[in-house]
Amino acid sequence: MTEESDFKWKQCLIIRSDVKMSCGKKCAQLAHAAVGAYEHSDKITRKKWYNEGMKKVVLKVPSLRAMYEIKTNAEMAGIATSLITDAGRTEIEPGTVTALGLGPALSEDLDRITGDLQLL
């Protein structure tokens, strides 16, 4: 296994802490965000990230506004994003924004955008 500091690529998955969801619901929303951001990434980046071990970091934001700020900053940096809006079939209201996927991208680029966020 590679040392943590050796990962050049990663994906950041971000959940809103102000929306009440079960653990399973959070996991599902984060999975949607991971797949969506991956699909928006370029082929070369995806391959490099995959070959390195597909590092993922799960973070939380306190509000919808904070999530949109992170999304905007990532897009301005050229990082793939995927904002997840729930269909409302189970626990939360339809149209609720729940999660955000970023990358895969260079770890250092993501750290500039998400470095102040807390781990989930």
- Low-confidence runs (pLDDT<50, min 5 residues)? none
- Count of DSSP H/I helices: 4
The fraction of residues in strands falls at 25-35%
CATH class: Alpha Beta
The largest pleated sheet is described as: 5 strands, mixed
- Strand arrangement across the biggest beta sheet: 3-4-1-2-5
CATH fold-level name? Bit1
How does this model look, in words?
It is globular and about 40 Å long. 41% of the residues lie in helices and 26% in strands. The protein contains four helices and five strands, in the order βααβαββαβ. A five-stranded mixed sheet has the order 3-4-1-2-5, sandwiched between helices. It is of the alpha+beta class and 120 residues long. It has a single domain (8-119), classed as Bit1 (3-Layer(aba) Sandwich), CATH 3.40.1490. It starts with 8 loop residues before the first strand and ends with a strand. The model has no long low-confidence stretch (mean pLDDT 95).
List the helices and strands and how they pair.
Elements: E1 9-16, H1 23-40, H2 43-52, E2 56-61, H3 64-76, E3 81-85, E4 97-106, H4 107-114, E5 118-119
Parallel strand pairs: 1-2
Antiparallel strand pairs: 1-4, 2-5, 3-4
Essential attributes:
120 residues, alpha+beta, Bit1, five-stranded mixed sheet, Peptidyl-tRNA hydrolase, PTH2
Short overview:
The protein is α+β, with helices and mostly antiparallel strands and 120 residues long. Helices cover 41% and strands 26% of the residues.
